[in-house]
From TrEMBL:
Keywords: Membrane, Transmembrane, Transmembrane helix. This is Membrane protein. Signal peptide: none annotated. The keyword Transmembrane applies.
Length: 143
């Protein structure tokens, strides 16, 4: 009889963590779209929309980052660096999002071009964090 080994399974995110992780990417993406609209039209309300969207992305991203920190300690002995990379990406996304919020708090005419650059980088980091988070973590290998 041949020994059959099952492939390692991926542990999905906790449903609450998945809900929290669903907020940063669309909110930062909408802020990026608002920054593009402001860059094209210079209507101040677009900068205001972006400021509020960034604030929402920071709240959702901060809660997801706290949940990832708890998960980092839970999977500490697994030998995988994936939870650490996930947490670091969320942390860098949140810090750059906070800097972006500070840039957007300035006078609307002073937001460009730094706000657009920071919104782009923050959106890309939110996308990477979502891809890492939703792809699951390798929890153990079958023998």
């Amino acid at each position: 009889m041949a020994a059959v080994s099952a492939p390692p399974y991926m542990k999905p995110l906790h449903p609450v963590h998945a809900i929290l992780l669903a907020f940063p990417f669309p909110l930062f993406l909408a802020a990026l779209i608002g920054d593009f609209a402001y860059w094209q039209t210079f209507h101040i309300q677009w900068a205001n929309f972006s400021s509020w969207l960034i604030a929402g992305g920071l709240v959702g991203g901060g809660l997801a980052m706290l949940w990832a920190l708890v998960g980092l300690f839970r999977y500490r002995g697994s030998g995988s660096s994936r939870p650490l990379i996930y947490f670091i990406v969320l942390l860098v996304m949140w810090v750059l999002g906070l800097i972006n919020a500070f840039v957007h708090a300035r006078d609307a005419w002073a937001v460009m071009p730094e706000g657009l650059y920071l919104s782009t980088v923050t959106t890309l980091l939110a996308l990477v964090a979502s891809m890492i988070g939703y792809s699951g973590f390798r929890s153990r290998e079958a023998v």
